[in-house]
Design brief:
Layout: E1 5-9, H1 16-29, E2 37-41, H2 47-53, E3 60-63, H3 80-85, E4 90-93, H4 96-101, H5 106-118, E5 122-127, H6 131-135, H7 139-151, E6 163-166, H8 180-198, H9 200-205, E7 207-211, H10 216-223, E8 230-233, H11 240-249
Parallel strand pairs: 1-2, 1-8, 2-3, 3-4, 4-5, 5-6, 6-7, 7-8
The structure holds 2-phosphoglycolic acid.
Length: 253
């Protein structure tokens, strides 16, 4: 049984003061009966403030990125060890904004996934096709390539070590959500690919999140799909009420 997971990707929003206010509101608003797991991914600069608020909380602290090397002359970068020291448990890797705006390659993302896993961080490997790729009928090929390269030879045993987020690039921040049929097709395919790469037990334990214009109004339908185990939420995670409504839509009971 996979526990649903909903992560708020705050992107380049909310400095320490505003991040603290939002995480407090989210943490206080959770229902004790809610079995879905929630996480927030603040900008690096706000991680210590959020971490301090979450000392006695089940809310998972996530990061939006990291560098693959342990340390060294990499100006502006942060390592997996630094994130774990700050209380981070999961890290988004290969988000489409990292791929398109910052030139991250499949190869680099594979190195980051391996480095995160080696340090005990759970990588949230983000994959997804552009609109042109979908129009050319290449969606599953693109997603398959990104998945294989991102996984590399990272060991996966019961699946709890890895999260995969499917985010069609054309649905991110656009208000255009993929249809349940489109999401269902790709998520099933990803589960199948994971089974080929790592076997049925591992594949059955990996949580597959959908991301791309998830809102309180469409979350329940998307989360009800068999291979959707929650969501990666951008815009709608910046306000406590809408993030909580999405989180409640992922309840297991
Ligand atoms: P969105 O972003 O919910 O604003 O579309 C999702 C994401 O980029 O993870």
């Amino acid at each position: 049984m996979r526990r649903p997971l909903v992560i708020g990707n705050w992107k380049m929003h909310l400095g320490p003061r505003d991040a603290e206010a939002l995480v407090r509101a989210v943490d206080e608003g959770r229902l004790s009966s809610n079995e879905a797991q929630a996480g927030v991914a603040p900008p690096y600069i706000s991680i210590p403030a959020v971490s301090a608020c979450l000392a006695n909380s089940e809310l998972l602290l996530c990061a939006q990125n990291m560098h693959q090397e342990e340390k060294g002359a990499f100006t502006g970068e942060v390592s997996a060890a630094m994130l774990t020291e700050a209380g981070v448990k999961m890290v988004l890797l290969g988000h489409s904004e990292r791929r398109t705006l910052f030139g991250e390659t499949d190869e680099q993302i594979g190195l980051k996934v391996a480095a995160a896993a080696a340090r005990g961080l759970v990588p949230v490997l983000c994959i997804g096709e552009t609109e042109e790729q979908r129009d050319r009928g290449e969606t599953l090929e693109v997603v398959g390539r990104q998945l294989a390269a991102g996984l590399g030879d990272m060991p996966v045993s019961d699946g709890s070590e890895l999260v995969v987020a499917y985010e069609p690039v054309w649905a991110i921040g656009t208000g255009r959500t993929a249809t349940p049929e489109q999401v269902d097709e790709v998520h099933r395919a990803i589960r199948g690919m994971l089974t080929e790469h790592r076997g049925a037990v591992a594949a059955g334990g990996v949580r597959l999140l959908y991301g791309g214009s998830v809102k309180p109004g469409n979350a329940r339908e998307l989360f009800s799909l068999a291979d959707v185990d929650g969501g990666l939420i951008g815009g709608a995670s910046l306000e406590a009420r809408s993030f909580l409504d999405i989180l409640f839509a992922a309840r297991t009971e």
